[in-house]
Write a structure and sequence with these properties.
The chain is an alpha/beta fold. It is built from 8 helices and 14 strands. The protein is globular. Bound molecules: zinc ion.
């Protein structure tokens, strides 16, 4: 409410940490057009967006939750049944393993079906036009066509995200909750198609030079910083060479999430290591005889804090 913006939970976390200290938490309201027209717009609870992702806090990834003290409009998506209508029976064409996986995913607080890497142009989010009074039939027709037919609206029952931070949370939640079914979970990555979620994430140790299309991840430390930018050294080698990730001064002074990233990097003395996740490539750098990945868009980077130093 304070920002007057519609935010994903990842966007809310970023906006929270972009504030100067002392930071204040935000109020959240339902964003569905039906609920926004109500006299009392229902509040939504945002869980854990004001804490940093650490390995310990992972079980409770940030998510939005219905606030039971408020009533939503009957047509609001919070009131809609699940896509599979709560059925435990196999859907047409589903294998037994797929049914078990679908049912197991219900215990997750959020699901991402489609991931649009920040480097891919995102489909604009088009909202259905607000219904004028006495214009109910038309509004109903628009709803039945699926929210104006635009991809990416929330009435599109596939859950789409372009937020790497949310994808990383989803990856860890799913791996933890689904256990032996985790290899069955797939995700549609724009530009790649439907792939196992597991195979989209690759340890830095297994990275191949000049190869994009993965969320590379690995632990390491940042070098003492001189300017606004930074260098992160991975513990693991890439193709037998020392590997680092570099973000230039220019990127760190221009990008809107720089404060959020700085806030995380400032914890370097408190934690034993960071885990970095990024979309990009490692390229051989001859002068230093190392593998270097450059991140020019901070949306392609997510950082977990490692355990605290004792
Ligand atoms: Zn609502």
């Amino acid at each position: 409410m304070e920002l007057g913006e519609e935010l994903t939970i990842g966007g809310a976390r970023q906006a929270y940490f972009n504030q100067n200290q002392p930071r204040s938490r935000f109020l959240f309201q339902c964003s569905s057009p039906e609920c926004r027209a109500l006299k009392v717009v229902p509040k939504i609870t945002a869980v854990n967006y004001y804490i940093h992702p650490t390995e310990k806090a992972r079980v409770k990834s940030p998510h939005y939750k219905d606030n039971e003290h408020y009533d939503h409009h009957a047509e609001c998506e919070w009131m809609l049944p699940d896509e599979d209508e709560g059925s435990d029976a196999p859907l047409p064409g589903e294998t037994e393993l797929q049914t078990r996986t679908r049912l197991a995913k219900r215990q997750l607080t959020s699901v991402i079906d489609i991931f649009v890497p920040p480097t891919q142009p995102e489909q604009p989010v088009v909202r259905p036009p607000r219904a004028a009074p006495g214009d109910e039939d038309e509004a109903g027709a628009i709803r039945r066509r699926g929210g104006g037919g635009a991809e990416g609206t929330r009435s599109d029952r596939k859950h789409r995200s372009g937020d790497l931070r949310e994808l990383v949370d989803y990856y860890h939640d799913t791996r933890e909750a689904l256990k032996d079914l985790f290899p069955e979970v797939t995700i549609n990555v724009t530009g790649r198609g439907e792939i196992p979620l597991r195979s989209y994430f690759k340890k830095v140790a297994w990275a191949r030079p000049d190869t994009a299309g993965y969320v590379y991840n690995g632990g390491g430390r940042i070098e003492p910083r001189e300017g606004a930018g930074f260098v992160f050294n991975f513990y693991d080698k890439v193709a037998d060479k020392d590997a680092s990730l570099q973000v230039s001064d220019e990127v760190m002074t221009q990008h809107r999430s720089r404060r959020y990233v700085n806030e995380l990097l400032d914890q370097a003395r408190l934690v034993r290591y960071f885990t970095f996740y990024f979309l990009g490539t490692f390229t051989y750098h001859e002068a230093s005889d190392t593998m270097v990945a450059q991140v020019t868009d901070l949306r392609c980077l997510a950082i977990d804090l490692g355990p605290l130093r004792s």
